[in-house]
Amino acid sequence: MAWTDPVAWVAYQKLQAADLNTYVNDNLDFLKQNVLLEASTELTIASGAVTISQTYHDIDTEGDASSDDLDTISGATEGRILILRANHTDRTVVLKNGTGNLNIGGDIYLDDINKRVILIGDSSGNLHLLYTDRQLVFCVNAFQYPAAGTDWTPTITDAQLGASKTAKKCWLPLNFLKVGDQIVSYYIVGDATEATALTLDCKLVRINYADPLTTTDISGGAITQITIDGNFRSQAILTSPEVVAIQKQYLLEINGTTGASDQIDVIGAEITIRRLT
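^ that's the sequence the OP posted. Answer follows.
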């Protein structure tokens, strides 16, 4: 069964039974089995606001700015469902919680045309969150040390690798993940004291449930090697988001080498995920 587009009826036009079946009864049966929305139409933010005219819209920033806040959405009524997405991947629309009439539990960033947010209106014209693939950043620093005090050493500020060490590893488990989360990217953060020949590598690793257990390096999950002195905040962006599922665990594997008088200090990592809520 397919949807039949309505026709423009002419005044005093006589309706035949076949027409009623095609344009009314068949379409009612279709709607009972399917939800069919019209294609999204574009709304452009003006002074933090837009006015909706249908259920599905894509939102663009004012003046094509790289980022713009959306505070107020006019036109919402009790039970009104609204689906929004960003109009352009390079322009981020930020839905602001509690600033205008959006009660959504926290700011939501529409920074990708493949992301959607679904809202529902109340009798006061406010909009509440039903669904979003919210993007979150988690800070992790619960290191695992295979030879604490000999290789990587725990301190109050960081995991520290002293001078004259070769290919020494420690790990950062990602123990905040939920099934269904999508790992998007991460930053490894710290400081390098380079005097001789320092290198620092980091990669995202999946542990697979198998007999015996296996590991997989995630595509795009390795940073560009750090070799110079100074603070670092090095990013890895996954080739495609990694979807967390049962019987999978994840960690960052950190691998450092230092020369005489070198030192590496890693304070932790910042992990960006999309979480369906």
